[in-house]
Amino acid sequence: MTKAKVKAKPKEKDKTEANAEGGCNTTTLYKHYVQACENIGIEPYNDLKHIVSTTGEQIIIIGSSDVKLSSGCRALMNALSGKLEGAPAEPFTLLKDLRIRSSDINDCGAIAVATFLRATAESGKKDGGSTAQPQDQGKLQFLDLSDNNIGLQGALHLGRSLEVGMNKTVTSLILDFNVLGSEGASALCKGIATNSTIAVLSLKHCNIDSTGGEPISAMLAFKRLALTTLDLSGNNFVGFGLIQLCKGLQKNASLTTFRLADNNIRQTDEDVAALKAFGQVLLTHSKLCEIDLDYNHIGNKGGKILLPGVRENKQITTFKISEIDMDVLTYKELFRVPKGNNVKKKSKKKKKK
Predict the structure, then answer these.
(1) Count of Cβ atoms closer than 10 Å to residue 124 Cβ
(2) pLDDT tens digits, residue range 28-60?
(3) How far apart are CA 164 and CA 152, in angstroms?
(4) How far is residue 67 CA from its own chain's centroid?
(5) Residue range 48-76: average pLDDT?
(6) What region, left, alpha or beta, does residue 56 occupy, with left being phi > 0 and alpha being psi -120 to 50 degrees?
(7) From CA 166, how far away is CA 164, in angstroms rounded?
């Protein structure tokens, strides 16, 4: 009898050497980046390989003097998407986590990122009509563009790239410490309102005032919204902005975490009216379980307004509030954190030599 031949198992390819899904690998990505820099007319960042993880799934740039500014960001986005002058290349589809922080990419850089995010693009007219051909979306899930001087135009394009029919992979968007303002927040939220994949949105310290409450509220009211975490801390919504936000929160069915710390909400008549509206939200919202209103000096007056909602809503596990001008009993009833999170660790004393 003749022995059956045993086929040798094919060697698994390393993600750094080849992308099994047809995209380029990390080595090719760097070559594309150099070419993209040449196309734009800037010097490439020689250590790009060090900011790309070995698996190609993460890129982290924090305050780099070589990759900063919009032109450097544009070159990187062109390399990632394979959009090179004269010779279109395979896109880099391994990336899951992109963080560009404190690099002053401004609106132009944000627009380049938005272009990279688009899930569809105009492919030109066919048979007298215009059609959109789907592009390779990749796997990008986490996007952090904090502290980059991004304003209205950048926010507008990011919003458009995330609206229905566009990017369907990003689940977390962090835009903290940018100069969006209320107009920028409005432009961004119009796109996110129809997005069914983004779960986390953070707009801390983005110069949003009370007029930003209405457009964000409109986003919260959309039925297809998938948002579970919204962080608006460090802005200036005051009472009027909170009243507007409550209108959307009352119609919202997805949010579990809501942070509005340090928003200049105090004890004026308007603030009190806003806290009454928020108290109603606490009584009726079906999923809200983590709330942060810390660094707002609502005092005893505001605290007592919120007490019924916090008492009745047994699903609230975290409720942070400022104790300034609030009596001890009211504060203790309101303040909640999960067990184990409020215990300060004792510092170990150094042994004498």
Answers:
(1) 8
(2) 999 999 999 999 999 888 777 778 988 899 999
(3) 20
(4) 21
(5) 83
(6) left
(7) 6
Q: Give the closest residue to 43 by CA, choosing from 60, 67, 19, 61.
A: 67
Please report, as a single letter, which amino acid is at residue 132. A
DSSP assigned state of 210: G
Tokens for 95, please give them. 């990336």
Query: What is d(CA 268, CA 275) in angstroms, rounded to the nearest whole number?
Result: 10
> How much is the average pLDDT of 274-280?
98
Give the CA dihedral 208, 209, 215, 221, nearest 10 degrees.
Answer: 90
Q: Which residues contact 13 (CB under 8 A, 6 or more apart)?
A: 20
Please name the residue that has the structure tokens 């740039």: 61
170, 198 Cβ separation under 8 angstroms? yes
Encode pLDDT of 285-341 as tens digits.
999 999 999 999 999 999 999 999 999 999 999 999 999 999 999 999 999 999 876
243/291 Cα distance (integer angstroms): 16
Q: Which residue has the tokens 């379980």?
A: 289
Other CB atoms within a 10 A radius of the CB of residue 153 amount to: 16
Q: Are strands 120-126 and 97-101 parallel, antiparallel or unpaired?
A: unpaired
* Interatomic CA distance for residues 94 and 72, integer angstroms: 21
Helices (H), 82-123: 106-117
* pLDDT score of 277: 98
Amino acid in the structure at residue 272? V
Q: Please answer whether residues 147 and 102 qualify as being in contact, where contact means their C-beta atoms are separated by less than 8 angstroms.
A: yes
